[in-house]
Specification:
- There is one protein chain.
- The chain is of the alpha/beta class.
- It is about 50% helix and about 20% strand.
- The protein has one domain (about 5-10, about 30-190): Rossmann fold (3-Layer(aba) Sandwich).
- It has helices at about 15-30, 40-50, 50-55, 65-75, 85-100, 110-125, 140-150, 165-170, 185-190; strands at about 5, 10, 35, 60, 105-110, 130-135, 155-160, 180.
- The strands form two sheets. A six-stranded parallel β-sheet has the order 4-3-8-7-5-6, with helices on both faces. The protein has a two-stranded antiparallel ribbon with strand order 1-2.
- The longest helix has 15 residues, at about 85-100.
- The chain binds uridine-5'-diphosphate.
- The site of uridine-5'-diphosphate (UDP) has 14 residues, from α9.
Length: about 190
């Protein structure tokens, strides 16, 4: 794998176009994949937390979210093609899901934000099969996980902040053969 190490986090080095091609193939194959989109803050916290670092580096796709990562890679003499944000990735997956009539599950953010995100998907991406959504302030984690397993989504978008979302995906990704991605505060932007 063509990866670039920035202070211990190993980033994939491809263009957004290549990445999107991989995601299309993954969706067609119903592959189980985990995408992380580390920004400089996440790189620094992974440096201090070996378990978190391992989880990130074992993800299938490690995407440089932030111009600081691109600048750092360049100054280390191992440049990365381009910045690809978590929000870009959410946008691409939603567009691809609409094109492929895929099943999507949304998890995270405040109740009104996830409701507005679900409403936007139903209105603007009518071919998506939105199989479920839940805010990120739940008490019974196992109920949510059961629902995801039951609904068999092709894409699970998880917005619990870092490292919560990465720990959640790492623990439960075997429950559905989906593309799982931690999208941070993306629903707050998407819903607005
Ligand atoms: N969030 C959540 N549950 C939590 C903590 C955070 O659903 O227990 C959501 C929060 O509402 C926001 C998103 O996670 O939509 C990202 O939070 P934050 O901006 O703090 O994290 P970052 O994007 O900086 O990782």
């Amino acid at each position: 794998k063509n990866r670039v190490n920035i202070l211990g986090t190993e980033f994939d080095n491809f263009t957004a176009k290549q990445f999107h091609q991989y995601l299309d193939d993954d969706l067609d194959l119903k592959a189980n994949k985990f995408i992380v989109t580390p920004n400089p803050e996440i790189v620094l916290s992974a440096r201090k937390d070996n378990n978190f670092s391992k989880i990130i580096n074992n993800a299938d796709y490690v995407i440089p979210d932030g111009i600081g990562i691109i600048k750092g890679a360049k100054s280390l003499g191992t440049p990365l093609h381009e910045r690809i944000t978590g929000f870009d990735t959410l946008q691409y997956l939603i567009t691809a899901a609409n094109r492929k009539q895929a099943k999507v599950f949304l998890l995270g953010a405040k109740p009104e934000v996830i409701q507005a995100s679900a409403d936007k998907i139903k209105k603007d991406y009518p071919q998506i099969d939105l199989v479920g959504y839940h805010d990120g302030y739940f008490k019974d984690e196992s109920k949510i996980v059961e629902e995801i397993a039951d609904k068999k989504p092709n894409i699970v978008l998880v917005a619990l902040g870092s490292p919560k979302q990465e720990l959640f995906i790492n623990k439960y990704r075997d429950q559905a053969d989906a593309i799982w991605v931690g999208v941070g505060g993306s629903f707050d932007v998407f819903s607005g």
